[in-house]
Structure formats: structure tokens, C-alpha cells
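ugh ok fine here u go
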Amino acid sequence: MSGHSKWATTKYRKGAQDSARAKVFAKIIRQVEVAAREGGSDMTANASLRTMYSKARDASVPIDTIERAIKRGSGELEGVRYESINYEGYAPDGVAVIVECLSDNRNRTGAEIRNLFNKNGGSMAEPGAVSWQFERKGLISLPRNLDEDQIMEAAMEAGAEDLADEDDHWVVTCSPTDMMAVRSALEGAGLTPSSSDLSMVPTSTIEVRDEGEAKKVLRLIEALDDHDDVQNVYANFDIPDSVMAAYDG
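structure:
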């Protein structure tokens, strides 16, 4: 599988082990604020805000915390103004990396992201250098104990493109514009998703089978992901499950 799904699983487990909920909350709340600032506080008219609201609730962010973030974003409460910035680069073995940030200081964030690439065996690239290797998709995760045929029927009727078995959960893939409709269809069928989010999915992957090189790739991805301004990190690596498990351990 691609770097996105495997890293998302590793990151999820690491977050639970490290009790990193506060950092996860802070990143999601920043996304909620930006969505409200860019499209307004009315969720019926702001698809991005609906998506971020669902993401926040999936992560168990308290409703009052989400509502305050929406008010800060819409200007009802005072708050920091964040700017969306994307960086592109390469990890060891030529793995393509996209880093999505929300920052209140572009120069500081850019310098720090470049330093993380350099310190961990990677390199920054010009805008557009690697983004062509990814597609924006909606990803909806569901518990593994749900029925595959039921998921398939409900999701495909609502416009989903694919259903994948990711060992301990199901992942429905769809276009970004169809994600909320697909999620609603699943919920209407009694199939409650565990999460849904927009993602950059690689169109092709790079195999990294050497354990030493794989660990270098994952260390860079983790270092980027741990930065406070970084919201998402996407990469097109394909690392064997055994190596991923060893790193996770």
C-alpha cells in the first residue's frame, strides 16, 4: 500500500502511545479556524468547514472547543491569522513528500521545514516538483468488523470510487466533492465511519525494502509531522509491513 495509509496507521498508534492528543487537537482546531475564515461559519454553505467539523468530532475534540475555533475563524472572537503553505521535497531513496502547513509566519516555517529535510537525509524541492505524483481524494475509514458488501453497496451508490481492506479497517476512496455525501450514505445505512478526511493519494509508489533506508524515510516523515505548523505529510513510499511493524514497535 501507499505511504499515506501505512503512515496514517503508524501515526495513529504513535499518537496513542505518546498521549499526543493535545497536539492533535491543536492542529485540527487550526484547520477549523482556517476553514471558517475562508468560507464563513455557516456549515450548510461551507463544505470545507463541514469536513473539518467532522474530522474534529471523529478525533473527540469537544464541541465547545470547535465552536470557539469557528468563531475565531469568522472574526466573532479574536484569533491568530494562519496562512496555508505547502512544501514539496524528497525523502531518502527518492520518495516524494508533500507537507501541508498552516502558519502565522511564512519565513520561520519555511526555514524550519527546510532544516528538517536537511537534518534527516532529505531535500526541499521547487513547487510542483512532486505534487503531480499525487491526487486529492476523500478517504473514509470504517471499523473492520463491518460488512464489506454493505459498505460497498452504500458507498458506491453515493459515488465512491473504491473500497480497500487495510488489515484492521476499511477505507472508502472518493472524489473530494463526494466525500460528505458518501459519509452520509454510510451513516444512513447504519455504517458509522471512524474518520473521514481529504488526503493526497500517490498515483504511484516507490518500494523501500531496505530496513535501514526505510527507517530514514520514516524518521523524516515523523520529524515533519511533529512540527507544530504541519497539518499533514504525504509520501509515496511502499514499505513492507514487517519493516513498518518494527518501526512502530
